[in-house]
Amino acid sequence: MTTAGDTADAVRAAVRAAVDAAYRDEWGQVVATIIGLTRDWDLAEDCAQDAFAAALSTWSRDGVPSRPGAWLTTTARNRATDRLRRDAAGRTKLREIAVLAPEPADPAASAVSAAEDIPDERLRLIFTCCHPALPFDARVALTLRTLCGLTTAEIARAFLTAETTMAQRLVRAKRKIAEAGIPYRVPPADLLPRRLASVLAVLYLIFNQGYDEQDGRRALTAEAIHLARVLVRLLPREPEPRGLLALMLLTEARRAARTDDGVLVTLEHQDRSRWDRALIDEGVAVLDDALALRQRGPYQLQAAIAACHAGAADAASTDWPQIAALYAELGRLAPSPVVELNRAVAVAMTDGIAAGLAVVDDLAAAGDLDGYHLLPATRADLLRRDGRVAEARAAYEEALRLAPSEAERRYLAGRLDAL
């Protein structure tokens, strides 16, 4: 028998789920809109948080609105206006806002102006967060906090740094924006190319943060893909936004096959019939458009590698020599020990296990990947293929201690059990 208490609990659970979903989908737009209105980052975050808190009580009473994002944005805007009215400086700011955004006298002219605007308010936020006056790590962290609503702890984990350090970094970044008068805008066309690298890095980090389906933030991948599409429309002659979009699409296409009952499934063993062929076809087409612009960059090369995997009917058909060559070119354009680790696998599959292990051993000796679980995991896999079981076991055990996700730990534990 259902009681009134059971019904109330069900309503609260449904509202909590709706608020959680809205937080993932709408936080960035709400904050970006309020920053655009007030130019006050802390006020925007505070009012957005107030709006989500109000949603918990109001939606329980009145029901979830048909457009949660619009409700949250309106509530946050009203909170911001109320807070600004309560002090003299705020009242001055409200008058400035009224002057800067007057009501249009001509609706037709207003429509033309709107069409010429940047297509997404969040893009203004990204370019502001990625201003060259800010340190690079601060640019990425600030965007993850304000655009995506990641907590300071989540951002700290992404950067492999302490939470207190990340909190200080965010405070300094916001202070720098205010004190330096960094404009809240997409930069003019002549400055856009120079600002792209950090913007693309932000989008890719957002995508990767959401790609792990175990962490409850899968909507971030859609957010990153959406913003990448906006960036492609904004910069049609720039190849790297297309390269990044292609990379995201080709990676997202494999999501359904990436885990099995909570256990990581490596690319070699994935059921390729579960890959999303529509996303693969779109990703390859976007990559072709990027390469046609004849200015190769790191994201295009990574997308080309992903396309090689996507085009193979099975693991045995993978064009490893081509992948090894692409990783070598990527290493020249964007040197990184992680790129070199990936190249080691391609070298092993092309030139033999010993050649790949030599690259891995050089990386281990350099120490740049100390504490990175994929270094011992890669070494373990190559040792296993080479029949060196005892050494493989030790490497798998090290990787298991370092692995950051449960899916990876289960996979590594399974590999150990199978030795």
TrEMBL record:
Q: Does the keyword Phosphoprotein apply?
A: no
Gene3D superfamilies for the chain: 1.10.1740.10, Winged helix-like DNA-binding domain superfamily/Winged helix DNA-binding domain
What residues does the RNA polymerase sigma factor 70 region 4 type domain cover? 126-177
State the Gene Ontology BP annotations.
DNA-templated transcription initiation
Occurrences of domain DUF6596 (ranges): 195-290
Q: Which residues form a coiled coil?
A: none
Q: Which UniProt keywords apply?
A: Sigma factor, Transcription, Transcription regulation
Range of residues in the leader sequence: none
Describe the family membership recorded for this protein in Swiss-Prot or TrEMBL. Belongs to the sigma-70 factor family. ECF subfamily.
Name recorded for this polypeptide = RNA polymerase sigma-70 factor (ECF subfamily)
